[in-house]
Specification:
By secondary structure, the chain is of the alpha+beta class. The strands form eleven sheets. Strands 1, 4, 5, 6, 8, 9, 10, 11, 12 and 13 form a ten-stranded mixed sheet that branches. Strands 31, 34, 44, 45, 46, 47, 48, 49, 50 and 51 form a ten-stranded antiparallel sheet that branches. Strands 20-21-22-29-24-27 form a six-stranded antiparallel sheet. Strand 25 (392-396) and strand 26 form a beta hairpin. The relative contact order is 0.08.
């Protein structure tokens, strides 16, 4: 299940804990954890990936707080312009397979209780039946700052906006109203189909936007230019109030929507923070967020006191004590206290101002592992850096040196400099700046070539992305034990950097990272010199389980695909892993055709008559070059090795419809343009002619083209092969089990496991009784 975390809200209603540029979801709430981090932590048992929807201004805060979750898979959708919850959820769901269960959670709530698990399980069961599930909380009183759900059992009768006090009292007395938590659970396809039905303008504007958005990396930018036509609308208004699919689960948990300090004080317990003394006080809440100051209260009643590094707030404890009016009144005079947290977040780490005057500034600077503060210079100030913790790699002018704890370095005015942290722990330096201008305005970034991170790992294991196409089966789960919640799994993309379905690093320091982001980390040189001519990573490896026949289709070549789709063309190779007796494929035309005849036969359902129908057997291999009309028949399980492309033109699909009744799109015009309509004779090849028997293993050449070469190895004891600087290597296990080792890294494996090895002078050992396919450029 995927978890969408809504973390884009702004506001300073909890000032001084929250600020305009540091909203409440990121503030420490208990034991140095934020509301946002609590939202992640409590859902880790249920979700395999987290997608964080937030404003671009909060990106580096999110990255900082996600550092505490090592190896957790996550992505960030970064809005330039807020569009409320429905579009944010819709655009993320458009990146999922329709069968994917999605749990949408708000990041500014406190939820506790042993029954939380039971609530999720109940909602998942309803979602599997096609419901859009919302979660309702039993009202503790007639609050006017929450929405309400009128319900009967699991049926939602109505959603009610935040009511007046009289209405709220009536709702609570009636007994059939719940607080609306703002959390939801559904299958991605069910939600999107319902959004398209009840609010089509939102669906299609989001769809059009996502056509232009690059989703290939962890951080996905939603630029204002592309989102400008999307209506700003809540989930309730867009779908829940209009849909007959909505169900509610009554949640028996402790729930706080922390909207103001009064509500926070209901949850915060006196004495939770260190450095607090209360004497002869009633109804007093003290929150002390400083480590070196004591707060003493004496003889106070119904008071909330917030002490932070740069501001103190004291107020009576009541909902009417709203800080917003005070902030608005005094913003021009004290704006820096209302806007900014005392810690500032950047791509490379954080800094904290320890002391500042008109002529000097002292900062504590923290660099995260593997990060670099890029080459820059200052024209109006000099700096002195002292390493307090860690190892700093500092470039000063043309010289680069390592500096350790207690070392210092002087940066004169106008000298280019940068600092990197290549270690596994955080780097902390104390920076003293002296000059005429001490702000970030006196910082000129110097353009330089991006440097790849220095890596020790030589082999990584990958986890696949899954596809739930309607023709798929269950063998990938039943036989190979792939971890996927879909009812059917048609494809597992075992090695993929393609934006439509990326593999994930499953081992090492980058566990949880998208494969495409990992490739950026290690740099193009790690792919080998043969890959340098390719703009993108050149190959994609899949396992395909065809319970039903696939559509009749064709792939374009590079020239056509780049011109028409901004995508590479597609040559591919199929290796039959298993098949039912009598299974077959369609492979090219059995006589020469014209484009007109091809179109006519598609329209009158006779196109199959002019295709080569070939019975297949376990171990067969077929190379499908661009332009070849083809299809995989029912009952076939195969490994597909192909160009890194998802460009397919569907020619014929038996008039099938998806689970929502939508016909599958055909691409007849483009398919006609790219199809090779010359007769193709099928020549059988004796596999033994391509096989070499060696000591402990057999080697078979499966196929090659300008993009890749693949060889299959049948291992009886072990095989060791050498790699070089020419190419990376992909290993996909076809059968059996054993161990693979490269340099100092080793893994146990079983069938359908996938590995990637960067280029370099190294040896790879595979031991066990197994077969695998090795692919390189």
């Amino acid at each position: 299940m995927k978890c969408i975390v809504l973390a884009g809200g702004k506001g300073n209603s909890l000032w001084p804990l929250s600020r305009e540029n540091y909203p409440k979801q990121f503030m420490d709430i208990k034991n140095n954890r934020s509301l946002f981090q609590e939202s992640i932590a409590r859902n880790i048992p249920f979700c395999d990936e987290f997608i964080i929807s937030t404003h671009e201004a909060y990106h580096f805060i999110v990255e900082n707080q996600m550092k505490d979750f090592q190896g957790l898979r996550y992505r960030c959708f970064l809005e330039e312009e807020r569009k409320k919850t429905a579009p944010a959820i819709a655009m993320i769901c458009m990146c999922f397979s329709p069968s994917e269960q999605v749990f949408v959670v708000s990041s500014d709530q406190i939820i506790e209780g042993e029954n939380y698990k039971d609530t999720i399980i109940q909602a998942q069961a309803l979602a599997r039946d096609g419901a859009i599930v919302t979660f309702g909380m039993k009202p503790e009183g007639p609050r006017t700052d929450y929405g309400y759900i009128h319900y009967s059992g699991e049926q939602v009768l109505a959603f009610k906006e935040k009511p007046g006090s009289d209405e709220a009292e009536n709702y609570v007395k009636a007994g059939d109203y719940l607080w609306n938590s703002g959390n939801f659970l559904f299958r991605a396809g069910d939600f999107l189909q319902e959004l398209k039905r009840v609010t089509p303008e939102v669906y299609w504007s989001c769809y059009e936007c996502m056509r232009h958005v690059d989703i290939s990396s962890r951080n996905i930018q939603l630029q204002k230019y592309f989102t400008k036509d999307i209506p700003a609308i809540s989930m309730e208004h867009a779908v829940l109030e209009k849909s007959h699919l909505v169900r509610v689960v009554k949640s028996d948990v402790l729930w706080y929507d922390v909207g103001d300090l009064s509500r926070l004080s209901d949850y915060a317990k006196a004495g939770d923070d260190e450095g607090v003394i209360e004497n002869d006080c009633q109804g007093v809440t003290v929150i002390n967020r400083t480590g070196d100051r004591l707060v003493v209260t004496n003889g106070l009643n119904d008071t909330v006191i917030i002490n932070t590094e740069d501001a103190v707030y004291v107020s009576k404890k009541s909902p009417e004590s709203d800080i917003k009016d005070i902030i608005q009144k005094y913003h021009s005079q004290y704006g820096k206290y209302f806007e900014n947290h005392h810690i500032f977040y950047r791509q490379w780490g954080t800094y904290e101002v320890l002391e500042e005057t008109s002529y000097f500034k002292v900062r504590k600077v923290t660099l995260y592992p593997g990060k670099t503060h890029r080459l820059h210079k200052h024209d109006l100030r000099s700096e002195q850096w002292i390493v307090a913790r860690g190892v700093a790699t500092i470039t000063l002018g043309r010289e680069t040196k390592e500096y350790r704890e207690k070392d210092s370095v002087y940066i004169p005015i106008g000298v280019e400099h940068s600092i990197s942290n290549y270690e596994d722990d955080e780097l902390v330096i104390i920076e003293v700046a002296i000059g005429e201008m001490l702000s970030d305005e006196d910082s000129v970034t110097i353009a330089e070539k991006n440097k790849a991170l220095r890596l020790n790992s030589s082999i990584i294991k990958l986890e696949p992305a899954f596809k739930d196409y309607l023709w798929g089966g269950t063998k990938l789960k039943d036989i190979y034990h792939k971890k996927c919640d879909y009812d059917i799994v048609a494809e597992s993309w075992e090695l993929s950097a393609h934006k439509d379905g990326q593999s994930t690093v499953a081992s090492g320091r980058f566990k949880g990272m998208l494969f495409g982001d990992y490739l950026k980390k290690i740099g193009r040189e790690a792919l080998g010199w043969k890959s340098q001519a390719f703009e993108r990573f050149p190959i994609l490896v899949k396992i395909i389980d065809a319970k039903q026949s696939l559509s009749i289709q064709v792939h374009p070549d590079d020239e056509f695909a780049l011109r028409e789709e901004n995508e590479y063309g597609k040559n591919e190779m199929w290796h039959i892993m298993d098949c039912e007796p009598g299974s077959f494929i369609y492979y090219g035309v059995n006589r020469s055709l014209t484009k007109e005849e091809l179109r006519r036969r598609v329209e009158n359902n006779t196109v199959l008559e002019v295709l080569n129908k070939i019975e297949v057997h376990k171990g067969d291999t077929f190379f499908v070059d661009a332009g070849t009309i083809h299809a995989i028949g029912a009952g076939i399980l195969l490994c597909e090795i192909q160009q890194n492309s998802n460009c397919t033109y569907r020619l014929y699909d038996y008039d099938r419809r998806d689970k929502y009744g939508n016909p599958r799109e055909l691409h007849l015009e483009k398919a006609q343009e790219v199809s090779n309509l010359n007769s193709r004779e099928i020549q059988s090849v004796d596999a033994s002619e391509k096989m070499t028997v060696c000591n402990g293993y057999e080697e078979e050449i499966l196929g090659s083209c300008k993009y890749f070469e693949s060889r299959k190895y049948q291992v009886y004891t072990e095989i060791e092969f050498a790699m070089n600087d020419a190419s990376f290597c992909s290993i996909i296990i076809i059968e059996g089990e054993g161990m693979i080792r490269c340099d100092n890294e080793s893994f146990k494996f079983s069938a359908a496991d996938s590995f990637f090895i960067p280029a370099g002078q190294r040896k790879v050992l595979v031991r066990g009784k197994c077969s695998f396919i090795k692919t390189h450029v």
